[in-house]
Amino acid sequence: MSINYQALSFEYQPCREQQDGVQTAAYPVVVVGAGPVGLATAIDIAQQGVPVVLVDDDCSLSTGSRAICFSKRSLDIFDRLGCGQRMVDKGISWNVGKVFLKDELVYTFNLLPESGHHRPAFINLQQYYVEGYLLERARELPNLEIRWKSKVVGVQQEGAAGTEGASVTLTVETPDGRYALCGRYVVAADGSRSPLRNLMGLDSHGRTFKDRFLIADVKMEADFPTERWFWFDPPFHPNQSVLLHRQPDNVWRIDFQLGWDADPVLEKTPERVIPRVQALLGPDAKFELEWVSVYTFSCLRMDRFRHGNVLFAGDSAHGVSPFGARGANSGVQDAENLAWKLAMVLAGRASDTLLDTYASEREYAADENIRNSTRSTDFITPKSAVSRVFRDAVLKLARDHAFARQLVNSGRLSVPAVLRDSPLNTVDSESFAGQMVPGASCCDAPVRVAGQPGWLLEHVGQRFTGVLFCGADGIDAATREALQALQRGPVPLMLVLVSIEDAEANRVALEDVLSNVKLLQDSEGLVRARYDATPGTFYLIRPDQHVCARWRTPDAGKVEHALKRALCVSGTA
């Protein structure tokens, strides 16, 4: 039976603090906000065995499409959270985009031209489906409690961050009155207007763009291909821009640039929207308006994402323009960065200062997203005659010249930030080629596991993972001794052996020597190519599937040193 996620509402239930009339001990983590970022954060933390309370001031999912473009990296994260396949099955997968000037095609691009990837470059999926699938996954986790109609109206921190007993007490308003909710750490994922940020007297800084855009979700049957189409100055909407995306359920997302002087109330009326859609689709097109919104946007962020034991994520921490699909995707990446660090700190395996690296890494990523988003907006909506001349010249040259296509910016689409300067990395001391540098998110590739097809990323993540590449001769005695030492180390390390030649020979050679080891076969040679691996190459992967360090031959001492660095444990250089 099909579920109408837009119509779902959730029942308010009094919590134990209200029923018992006493404040319970501090929960390890309280997450504020049940949007995609808050749900992803809560699920990720709960999957690592940490009890979580998630509070939201509403009792329903989002309406309208809102965020619709979810990137390959977000899909990899959703896979790890246990709901990626549902999203791919429902979503519209796409890799190809087209850019038009007036009514002529300028060029076509492919965001994932090579084969051998589990997930597409993007799927289009309405935000209420994403929230619905995440919510259903959250309800499967016994240590994750969701409290609806629970509005945070006060916040008080006790103790200095990093000290024993430090905590945060939230005052929560419900239909039954107010109560105190105490958490050791609080994650603020409560959106761009962030009540929690306002309660703490904090601000975001940046640039607001003086332009307005109309979103029309149009339900119709059309034979347009599943591609991203972007028009500069089209004849049906002159001197402005238009973006067209297909979504599930025969819904099409159309963004019309309106200009700063447009009346946002008037432009949402059917009398204004329908003629614009007809101009694009033709006077005889049959369609229904499902959702309409007029928006402006800003590119901004908080100065710091950590304030004591309160950590900000998603739109509460940073905001970008919608061009490039960087908002929700960067928020989901915030969640994956933060969750494992909270789990490690709460388990006593990492210093509290590890959480400072959440802030520094994601502030760096936010700056990258804001920079790209600002450049996209400036290209799409030039604010001077000189900028307009430059943009139009670039578009005309791009029809015939590849170099000019690199300058066209209809929205640089979201890719994960490479955290090259993270203090958690161990810098290469040996020669490697390719993109899998320390700080990069891991690239997927096809493998075989016990003779069955699979994917590399299914076997890394959630824990620190050591990935060793083996040739036909297996591993030598020194490497075997190093791996055994790592398995006895203070930080649980999962080992994955990737056979780049003879998987069966390696299995026989290793099964009696090492425990808790996964053996994968590089079925198409793509793992070896993408990781520039030779027999003996060893990668240390973080729980969020980012490369932490790599060596041509594993050394137990060096790996343990890199692990301590990655956990901000004393004794590192």
From TrEMBL:
Keywords: FAD, Flavoprotein. Transmembrane segments: none annotated. Its cofactor is FAD. It comes from the Bacteria. The keyword Flavoprotein applies. The keyword Flavoprotein applies. One of its GO terms (molecular function) is FAD binding. Residues 27-372 form the FAD-binding domain. PANTHER family: BINDING MONOOXYGENASE, PUTATIVE (JCVI)-RELATED (PTHR43004:SF19), TRK SYSTEM POTASSIUM UPTAKE PROTEIN (PTHR43004). This is 3-(3-hydroxy-phenyl)propionate hydroxylase. It comes from Paraburkholderia phenazinium.
